[in-house]
Amino acid sequence: MFDSPAADPALPNRFAPVRAAAPLVRFFARRIGLSVLTLLGLVTLAFAMTKFIPGDEAQVAAGPDAGPDQVEAMRARLGLDAPAIVQYLRFIWRLLHGDLGTSIVTYQPVLRDLERVLPSTLELVAITMVLNLVIAIPVATIAAAQGGRGLDALTRIAAAIAAGLPVFWVALMLQFLLGTLARVLPISGQRGFGVTVPNWTGMRTLDALLSGNPSAFLDASLYLVLPAATLALHFSSQLFRALRASLELAAASDFIAPVKAKGASTARILWRHALPNALPPVITLAGTQIADMLGAAVLVEAVFARQGVGAYLANAVAQKDTFAVIGTVLFVGAMVCVVNLLVDAILLATDPRLRAAELARGGRQ
Amino acid sequence: MTGLAVTDLCKSYPAAGGGRREVLKGVSLRIDKGECVGLIGESGSGKSTLIRCALGLEKPDSGRVDYEGSFVHEATGPDLLLFRREVQIVFQDPFASLNPRMTVEELVGEGLLVHRIEPSRARRRACVAELLGRVGLEADAMHRYPRAFSGGQRQRIAIARALAVSPRILVCDEPVSALDVSVQAQVINLLADMRSALGLGILFVAHDIGVVRYLCDSVLVLAEGRVVEEGPTETVFGDPQHDYTRALMAAAPVPDPAEAKARRALRRQQREAARGSEP
Amino acid sequence: MKPLLEVRALTIDVPKGEGWMRVVDGVDFSIGAGERVALVGESGSGKSMTARALMRLDDALRIGGAIRFAGEEVLGCTEAEMRALRGSGIGMVFQDPMASLDPFMRVGDQVAEVLRIRGVGRAEAHARAVAILAELGVRDAASRSGAYPHEFSGGMRQRVVLAMALVAGPKLLVADEPTTALDARIQQQVLDLIDDAAADRGLGVLLITHNLGIVAGFADRVLVMYSGRIVEEGPVEQIFAAPAHPYTRGLIAAVPRADMRVDRLPPIDGAPPSPARRPSGCAFHPRCPVRLPVCVMTAPQLRPSGGGSVACHLAAAEEAMA
Amino acid sequence: MMARPHLSLGDATVFVLVALILAAAVFGNLLAPEATFSSDIGNAFLPPDAQHWLGTDSQGRDVLWRVIAGAAPSLLSSMLVVTIYSLIGVVVATLATVVPRWLDEGLMRGTEIGLALPGVIVAMGFASAMGPSLASAVIAMSITGWPITARLLRSITRQTMVAPYVQGAQVMGVSRFRLMTRHVLPNSLDVLIIKWSGDVSITILVLGGLSFVGVGAQPPSAEWGAMISDARSYVSTAWWTAAAPGAAIALTAVSFSLLGDILQRRLGGAGASGGARS
Questions:
Q1: B-contacting residues of C 279-318, CB under 8 Å?
Q2: B91-100 pLDDT tens trace
Q3: By the CB < 8 Å criterion, does B264 face chain C?
Q4: Domain enclosing residue B251, as ranges
Q5: Which residues on adjacent β-strands are paired with residue C73?
Q6: Domains of chain D (ranges plus CATH)?
Q7: CA nearest A331: which of A300, A301, A299, A308?
Q8: What pLDDT sits at residue D190?
Q9: What is the DSSP letter of D43?
Q10: Which among A200, A277, D63, D213 is placed 20 to 30 Å from D21, CA to CA?
């Protein structure tokens, strides 16, 4: 209703790349700054959590059999006798040096533990994400062409049901049906007996490929099928539902009739016009899905006995391994921040309106 | 001194690509009780910003808005209450200007309630019925929600809502441009009638010269944040002095085929001349 | 000679709940080659539905009657034949120029797409797109064609939209409220642009609008639509000088003029009816100042009157008397 | 103006399902026979038959009755979680709408922290800090769930605040309190009702997952996640003990997510015609 100052007809000159680069730098500087702030908030939360835990940290660290003297010695050693603010600053200082504390279960630095278990989880999440996109995008677009009939109605119902299946239960049932009953797939662990590959990246499929060992690759892949399928079923049905709704909105936009009036076919309208317009919110969702996949990995790794971040966390929780829990939470938080930055970059590269808005906004600050 | 006076108003917003964009560059205007002032401006002229500043919804960078001798943007307590009661607005889009979750009775009676003019519910209802009658609606309309009404009827409800608190100044922001052509005249006439019956001062903001010429005593032409021409309506439109006013007059549709076609042919000649001289 | 477009007994129903709702109820008109026809009506008159039906843009509608374009029966076309017709037989310009463009595609590509669909090579399609953008007054068309719609102003976007409608060389241009969202000066520019383009190409034009004012200088012939029917039709001079239908008369009188002072506007009472609640008989009768008893009962037929035709019992009676 | 969509067969099915599940959650514990909660090792692992439609579990308890009794801890706690964090979200978003701009910005920055983490992982952290129990899982999810709701509602109130009818109310001089309670919130909350239903669907999955890995409800409880956790070791011999509670979670999650879709169709249309999102 009112003149909005943002709808300014004076537009940035897109033929001036030198000027255009500066706002981009500013954009990412701002986003990285925000991520740092977010992480700082998270660290504060994590620090507060260590203070909330019932019981005495020094007692826990010194072990249940330690006498009062030993506990006091441990308290001094851990710096727990200092004021809270000093402890907080030390906590941050240690984090900046990559010190996430030491696990009371493995007696290893938490960071080293995470380095060990991370590749397996990354491998699982990466494959799940590929399956996720490869399934959801084409199926949603093809279904949209049917406009509520046939395949569209069918996939909608199927996706609604699939999105409501609990991941850990699907894992358990698949394990039972395909592994135990049908015996077609390995049901637990991540490698067959006696199959070895060099540990270069830690991702077994990749290591097998790099070392030119096809049978080891097949072996590692087979172990991935059930966990990845379980996760992909859940996440791709979620992504499908979002994209299908987004496509419906895009297909109802006013610019669709003009495209049709050009003589474009339904397929062209969908793939060339509706889909690009429908994707941005779905890309954002796919980004948040990565965080959720890491969460779901806790469940899936538990069922399929994979040594990953999720299993490590579940184990740490069960063993009351405080530093391992906090370290893992922080680590996952940092990963999610990086993923969010990536998603921002992808959106900026694909959405011309967002690009214009960000260029304009960069100049304002 | 009476009425609403805007003096030397300036307002800017952060602009794309750095710096600030000046939307208002020193605008002054004044509406007295019983007077109808037209404000002509195209989109981007700054008229919406002007309205927001004049109504105290937004703070100007410099300049002042006075009502009954007090400075609107610093007014508090009784002065602010007086301003909030005596200066009302009717918006352009009748489908967005009425809260969809309130009945017509609540909508029209809200001013009576918040200004404690009529705290009793029964008496308020009687007032609402009378107001509805005055704008040409049946009293039983009060039990329904805005979605049950057409655009023209909604605009009548909006006018009744504004009139409920007995304002002295009514700001009308393009009140008929979203209505069907055959309904516009009804609402314009209603505003004219209310003005003579109640002695209302009206600031009528529009992009349509015809409506302003019909309704207003005097007019200001706003272009790029400045008043480029002002004066009695017939003087300004009868003999426009500024090029911009002339251009607006020339662009207004003429409902006379012979005249309109002659103008079109002339423009076409001019374009061809321009096209011929270009290369 | 056969007219370019011939519409006979056109009916349009939109799905409503379990059944259908009639929004266009028996419309007849034709447009000759190079002729400018304006279709004027208010909300709920069915004017935009009529325009969209010509190209069968909405699958959900039920369209009856006959639409013949260049001798071909549009309603009998297969979907492939329709695709060929859209763009190269009939070009269309839509109401809101911002909303008519895909925000994710460069404007040059959007214009060129019309040709690419028809198998024109990438380079040639692009060259022709740039050429028509330049012709329609887009400065630096070659470089501007790489920009996205949001980088264009309202008037420039309307030029792009027009380029899309014209680039495949249609014989008829349908413009659905092309100036509604625009200021008077831009509105005039856009109309002049359509005027020039149509004159240069000898195009027939169907201009859909609610604004009778802009019609006077543009159209050869005017169709006035009310609640799903054409109530009056005639040469533009006659419509303005001697409107025969009380609705047309009311419309012309109710618009305040910019070029002269009017003392009191005579308003039309009531509001245009929604298709769901169309009055019996002549749909205008509840608002008509000269209503006859018969108007409530039966709908008047469109009858020749002067140089045009009118659907009004009173006009028919007066004609019979004279 | 707007025609209300007819009650289709599909919609009716969803309503009936939701009603049945809610009934199980409210009355299940009262109706269940005593034996549902006590062990009878002699009858352990009976496969489904006429007497035990879904068989018996490791303690010889009837699986069907346990699934019905489990509706209360599973569904009601999920509904509680979503209700608590929705209320927190409403309060935060409402505050952000009325406070000065810098504080609004600050609050919204704060919510970004909450977005940076998967709910399961944070909840695991919290639950481990507070000791594993259904209550800690519920508390953990309640205090981690609100940021998304707050941000969604804030973005809607931001649009509603500039709607002409809200500005008209400001010109009329209505108080801030009345502005929020009569004009802004009533026209902003539709989305939250739709979201509430969808969120219950997601929360029941997450809560089940937490119980499954042992940080939520603990074994004797008939909470569905805990039942599956308990049944996990016997899947290959007594698959029904794991299949039944999982199917119950799925049925509930799907029903509530479809309920959300239906509400979206019905309320979404009404809100739009009201012109709140102009």
A1: 287
A2: 999 889 999 9
A3: yes
A4: 242-279
A5: C68
A6: 58-267 (1.10.3720.10)
A7: A308
A8: 85
A9: G
A10: D213
* A263 with C148: Cβ contact below 8 A: no
Helix axes A322-350, A275-304, angle to 10 degrees: 160
**Residue range(s) defining the domain that contains residue A270:** 113-317
Chain A CB within 8 Å of residue D198 CB:
no
Written as six digits, the tokens of C193 are: 């642009």
Q: Count Cβ neighbours within 10 Å for each residue of C122-158 and write b for 16 or more, e otherwise.
A: eeebbebbbebbbebbbeebeebbebbbbbbebbbbb
Judge if A34 and A177 occupy the same domain.
no
Q: What pLDDT, on the 0 to 100 scale, is given for residue D246?
A: 92
End-to-end CA, chain A: 26
**A45-60 burial: b if 16+ Cβ within 10 Å, else e:** bbbebbeebeeebbeb
Supply C52's token pair. 């969209």
Check CB contact under 8 Å for B48 and A10. Answer: no
| Bridge pairing between strands B36-40 and B201-206 | parallel
Nearest-by-CA chain D residue for B170: D171
- Give yes or no: residues A164 and A15 share one domain: no
* Rounded-to-integer distance, Cα A338 and Cα D70, Å: 40
Instruction: Give the nearest partner residue to A332 out of D121, D213, D251, using CB atoms.
Output: D121
Residue C233, number of CB atoms within 10 A of its CB:
26
CB atoms within 10 A of CB A330: 22
Does one domain contain both B47 and B164? yes
* pLDDT number for residue A272: 94
The count of structural domains within chain B is 2
**Are B191 and B173 in the same domain?**
yes
Measure in Å the smallest separation between the Cα of A16 and chain C Cα atoms. Answer: 13
Q: Mean pLDDT per 10-residue run, chain A (365 residues)?
A: 37 43 76 84 79 66 75 78 83 84 82 90 94 95 85 90 93 86 76 74 82 85 90 95 93 92 93 94 90 88 89 84 83 86 88 77 43
* Of the residues A317, A334, A355, the one at which a domain ends: A317
User: Same domain for A223 and A325?
Assistant: no
Q: In terms of Cα–Cα distance, which of D73, D63, D87 is closest to D185? A: D87
Name the residue ranges covered by the structural domains of chain C: 5-100+170-278
CB contact under 8 A, B16 and A360: yes
How close C58 gets to chain B, by Cα (Å)?
A: 25
Note whether B248 and B152 are same-domain residues: no
**CA end-to-end span of chain D:** 18
CB A160 within 8 A of CB D240: no
Q: Which helix (H) or strand (E) holds D99?
A: none
User: Which residues of chain B make contact with C153, given a CB cutoff of 8 A?
Assistant: none
Which residues of B have a CB under 8 Å from any CB of D? 55, 57, 80-81, 84-85, 87-89, 91-93, 95-102, 110-111, 114-115, 146-148, 158, 161, 165
Q: Is D109 on the interface with A (CB under 8 A)?
A: yes
Residues in a beta bridge with C20 = C15
Q: D88 is written with which tokens?
A: 């927190």
Following DSSP, what letter does each residue of D121-143 receive, concatenated? HHHHHHHHHH-SSHHHHHHHHHH
Q: Which H or E run contains A226?
A: helix A214-251
C155 to chain A nearest CA, in Å?
11
Determine what percent of chain A falls in helix, strand and coil, rounding each to the nearest 5.
75, 0, 25
Q: How many domains does chain A have?
A: 2
Residues B122 and B253 in one domain: no
Residue A313 and residue A323 in one domain: no
Same domain, B162 and B181: yes
Is the distance from CB of B278 to CB of C234 less than 8 angstroms?
Answer: no
CATH class given for the domain over C5-100+170-278: alpha beta
Does residue A37 sit in the same domain as residue A18? yes
Full-model pTM? 0.87
